[in-house]
Specification:
Two copies of one chain form a homodimer.
Chain A (H helix, E strand, L loop, with lengths): L2 H4 L3 H11 L3 E2 H12 L3 H13 L3 E6 L2 E6 L2 H11 L3 H4 L7 H5 L21
Helix pairs in contact in A: 3-4
Chain B binds a DNA duplex through α3 and α4.
Keywords (chains A, B): DNA-binding, Transcription, Transcription regulation
Pfam family, one (chains A, B): HTH_20
Organism (chains A, B): Streptomyces niphimycinicus
Chain lengths: 123, 123
DNA sequence: AACGAATTTAAGCGTTGACTTATATAAGCG
DNA sequence: CGCTTATATAAGTCAACGCTTAAATTCGTT
């Protein structure tokens, strides 16, 4: 199962956002998600399982609590997948100053928009 | 509909990969996808519609052909969403030389893993 | 104007997947 | 030990989504 399949769910994305702020117990996550999405505790637990099995989160037992934490690998994989599209905004838009003004992130564009193979070139 | 919902489908991801190499007509895309996934031409057309409506692709008419091209905005949005997780690999792993050896992409980590709010710190 | 190619839209169907309720597991505690 | 708390699993239901076939649209061609 591809990483992006797992991220194709708003609840799971939100859970990851919570975990990004630091380790959280299943119960803590459930409380928040429950109030935000109005779903049951088992539903949250099932999402946690998907995240676990997808490698997005790791668990650590502490007493009867299960402490979840973000695991980087699949997210990095998504980031890599995006690489092939980076050329579409790294230039072209900073002409308008849009991106640089906002993100302030700076990358070296080394592979930038590899050559076309068959059809026409764009723009 | 969130950008990541749209990317939660292998066919749509593959279509975007094709478009990343340059403008392609609906028919050209269909041919490739069809051979790779074994689905019908209308099925491909429907995926193209989702990409269109999600802002991932733009269309340009040329005679009876429709030429599709990648549109950056939603992909950039995904990239931004990933920002909150970047801290989980930008350090910690380049100690192993893994990332730097591979991606060769260099970012300035200006916001890196914002402080925890409630529970424990990780690691 | 009729025909054919390229593409989209419409309608219907089947499967996947997210949810619910109910139950199991397991640790803390009186 | 039995009870409660924390969490996971099981089983079943329902809706969303992706696919198919069929029809509509649009342009180019003779």
């Amino acid at each position: 199962m591809h990483a992006l399949d797992v991220l194709g769910d708003p609840v799971r994305r939100r859970i990851l956002e919570l975990l990004a702020a630091g380790e959280r117990s299943s119960g803590e996550v459930s409380t928040v998600i429950r109030s935000e999405f109005g779903i049951s505790q088992p539903a949250v637990s099932q999402h946690l399982r998907v995240l676990r099995e997808g490698g997005f989160a790791s668990v650590r037992a502490e007493g009867t609590r299960r402490l979840y934490a973000v695991e980087a690998a699949p997210l990095r994989e998504v980031d890599r997948w995006l690489d092939q599209f980076r050329g579409f905004w790294e230039q072209r838009l900073d002409a308008l100053g849009t991106e640089l003004a906002r993100g302030k992130r700076q990358r070296r564009l080394d592979q930038g928009r590899g050559g076309d193979s068959r059809t026409g070139e764009e723009t």
